[in-house]
Amino acid sequence: MNFLNEVAARFPDAVSLAAGRPYDGFYVADDVERYLRVYRDHLAGTGLSASAIDRTLLQYGRTNGVIGDLIARTLAVDEGIEVPAEAVMVTAGCQEAMIVALRGLCAGPDDVVLAVEPCYVGFTGAARILGIEVVPVPEAADGLDPEAVLRVAREVRASGRRARALYVVPNFANPSGVSMAVAARRRLLEVASEAGLLILEDDPYGLFGLDDEARPTLKALDGAAGGRSVIYLGSFAKSVFPGARVGFLVADQVVVDGAGRRTLLAEELSTVKSMVTVNTSPIAQGVVGGVLVDAEYSLRAANRAKVEFYRRNMRALLAALEHEFGDDEPMTWNTPSGGFFAVLNVPFVADEALVEVSARDYGVLWTPMCFFYGDGGGEGAIRLSCSALEPPRIEEGVRRLGKLVRDLVS
Amino acid sequence: MNFLNEVAARFPDAVSLAAGRPYDGFYVADDVERYLRVYRDHLAGTGLSASAIDRTLLQYGRTNGVIGDLIARTLAVDEGIEVPAEAVMVTAGCQEAMIVALRGLCAGPDDVVLAVEPCYVGFTGAARILGIEVVPVPEAADGLDPEAVLRVAREVRASGRRARALYVVPNFANPSGVSMAVAARRRLLEVASEAGLLILEDDPYGLFGLDDEARPTLKALDGAAGGRSVIYLGSFAKSVFPGARVGFLVADQVVVDGAGRRTLLAEELSTVKSMVTVNTSPIAQGVVGGVLVDAEYSLRAANRAKVEFYRRNMRALLAALEHEFGDDEPMTWNTPSGGFFAVLNVPFVADEALVEVSARDYGVLWTPMCFFYGDGGGEGAIRLSCSALEPPRIEEGVRRLGKLVRDLVS
Fold first, then answer.
1. Does residue A4 sit in helix, strand or coil?
2. What SUPFAM superfamilies does this protein's entry cite (chains A, B) (predicted)?
3. How many domains would you assign to chain B?
4. Nearest CA to CA, how far is A102 from chain B (Å)?
């Protein structure tokens, strides 16, 4: 992604349909003080003394964090995920949650992890940093196919390696925008049990559906059935703000620790977390904690304005694609039911060189889908983001993209 | 260290000469708002608009952080380290700086890292997480011997492996309390050049000398001689507060990136940093930035009260050891010239089982030195910390330790 940032810096007037960050307009620095104050008042309300609150925010603290209880409560309200506070590890963004989960699960030289392909580069990058092999499972047009997971898991086993986990984004995936149907989610949980896989469920966009349809997380479905096959990876980057760099993982699997005691996997993984960042800044945790308290533990309720904004943007992107390419035979795109991304298929190779041409000569930036494949794939597709702009700029970006496409195809 | 926390929790009345954390009394939660406000005013003073300040604190940001310029300026004032802002990477505590440096330097399967032994467990733990072998270089009573480094580096080379770096804490090391003489520091820089080693210099306690003697960092000595052999690992946990979880590394080595452009190693390492935590919370960076601005870029000046406090504590610890064990023939201890730690040698095996006995029956906790050795060593020594207590508790702790020792020796 450094390449895209660099091209964006060189062509500042280009419309960026590449940037997947949240919209700038939601952020006010005064909120930091406000929510920190809410969190401090909350701690005082639980009976903590002033000096204990000072220590909570400024001293070294518990490796797994101090707002696990608030996060567990929010997950229960918003997602129907019922876990004890001790099952939550607060991390330095969801990125660290991936590092901790990967390192904790893949300890041996034959341990590999499966991942949906195309895949979020943060996940494949985390695995690369740790020297862990990622085996891709191709995503279908209607999301990850559980039978494909089973097939790849068997191939891995037959090759003498051990597939420990599967990474998937069931709602409005980055980069594809695709979601899994509920029946497929249920079948995936069965497949995970059969294949002895844990599922690493990443859900940063789940709040941002185009409609109010309930999209149950894998973690909620599994928990309701008494299962423990899912480690839920959580982000507050879209639902609160990215600058807190606070994420989390939920790992309520019961394990036996080195001293023979039963504990939860999240607590067992604290050994890894302590060696990556010691603990997550309690100041940053306090800001997010204040947001959760202020929202009465419902980010769904607190995010109504953002949900409306991103819905409007996604509808604007899909309408602009229809307007620009609706009469164009070879042009196809998918229609995500929410989130920040859609994929446009093009009848030419969309690579780095073309991004540069597009930014310089056409004034529009986008992301080659081939960036999200490990070993070939996605050459004829581009990812379009609609999160960081307002509708008129999205429409302008798609118009410029139309000109590029027509010049290349004609 | 989990073991010690657990024992401490079970015996809350035990005096902890094990806890190496800074003293609680310095921390006031209101400081967070105050320093954040200073940082925001500073940004406004540089010409940033209100909305740009909002974005700086709350949006995704530059991987290597936003306060590199303030840190570079502070290093110049306090340490005579002259580096451009681009040589500084802000990290989620010094722990992440170790992870990033280790992963960036040791990429091949034959790459190993040398480290002083006894060694801070955060460093050996970081290497373990990454699967990087740590080859110990034994520390002498007067600090790391450069000739020993040269010898070990040659042995490693002869074995077909590649020693990429050496980890060392030149000032008041954790756990030994030992410091390197200036002549040894100069010789270590020569040795590093000869052996093709980078030095990872960790200096969390450098401000806290018992006297005002100048103790030049390896980075400053190297830079003054035009060298680039040192990566400086920085912590604000003791000089500001631990709860920010802000650290940094300084890597001003010139390297050639994938696209053939000359850049600084810190910028090259941003690829690793982005896959560990994306970027360090700009809110936490802002709090630390505010402290640096408020201190007019001298943590040495801003820390006078803390320096006095820790000096008084170290003097109290050494005086208590003299009082308790001065007439006891077999008992010896070292006399650090600053920092948080001293080592007491005892005529028995000091292990986990004995810590538990000591906490339960004698009401005093300490850290077995064997925790800081990879493969045997330190069995007859204990680390005593004097940072978290006030002098009367330190004295009481040493009295209780005296009773344990006499019961075991008689």
1. helix
2. PLP-dependent transferases
3. 2
4. 11
Q: What angle do CA B94, B97, B100 make, to 5 degrees?
A: 155
Task: Answer yes or no: do B310 and B242 share one domain.
Answer: no
Partner A, chain B 182-241, Cβ-Cβ below 8 Å: 237, 241
CATH number at residue B122: 3.40.640.10
Beta-strand relationship, A15-16 and A364-365: parallel
Instruction: Give the tens place of pLDDT for each residue, A134-145.
Output: 999 999 999 999
Q: Which of B144, B132, B135, B75 is nearest to B100 (CA)?
A: B132
In a domain, A26, yes or no: no
Strands (E), A87-213: 88-91, 111-117, 134-140, 143-144, 162-168, 198-202
Q: Are strands B162-168 and B198-202 parallel, antiparallel or unpaired?
A: parallel
Last residue of some domain: B302, B317, B340?
B302
Last residue of a domain, one of B247, B282, B302: B302
Return the residue matching tokens 């709860």: B243
Residue reference for tokens 């990812």: A383
Cβ burial, residue A226 (10 Å; 0-12/13-18/19+): exposed
Rounded to a whole number, what is the distance in Å from the CA of B327 to chain A's nearest CA?
38
Give the distance from residue B22's alpha carbon to the nearest chain A alpha carbon, in angstroms. 8
Residue from B249, B336, B287, B210 nearest B64 by CA: B249
Q: Tell if the CB–CB gap between A60 and B242 is shorter than 8 Å.
A: yes
Q: Taking a C-beta distance cutoff of 8 angstroms, is the pair A228, A253 a contact?
A: yes
Amino acid residing at A399? R
CA–CA distance, B239 with A336 (Å, rounded to integer): 50
Three-class SS state of A351:
coil
In a shared domain, residues A189 and A233: yes
* Backbone φ/ψ region at B239: left (φ over 0), alpha (ψ -120 to 50), beta: alpha
Residue of B1, B2, B284 with shortest CB distance to A281: B284
Q: List per-block mean pLDDT (blocks of 10 residues) for chain B, which spans 410 residues.
A: 85 95 94 97 98 96 97 98 98 98 96 98 97 97 97 98 98 98 98 96 97 94 96 96 97 92 96 97 98 98 97 98 90 97 97 97 98 95 97 98 94
Sign of CA dihedral B312, B314, B319, B321: positive
pLDDT, tens only, A12-53: 999 999 999 999 999 999 999 999 999 999 999 999 999 999
* Residue B308 included in any domain: yes
Q: Is B328 on the interface with A (CB under 8 A)?
A: no
Strands (E), B38-133: 88-91, 111-117
Please report whether residue B379 resides in a domain: yes
Q: Does A90 touch chain B (CB under 8 A)?
A: no
Q: How far apart are CA B366 and CA B17, in angstroms?
A: 5
CA distance A29 to chain B (A): 5
What's the mean per-residue pLDDT of chain B?
96
Q: Considering CB atoms only, which of A2, A245, A279 is closest to B278?
A: A245
Residue A298 located in a structural domain: yes
> How far apart are alpha carbons B223 and B227 in whole angstroms?
5
Report the complex ipTM: 0.96
Domain that holds residue B149: 31-302
Nearest Cβ partner for B243 among A24, A57, A122: A57
Among candidates B27, B125, B275 on the partner chain, residue whose Cβ is nearest the Cβ of A95: B275
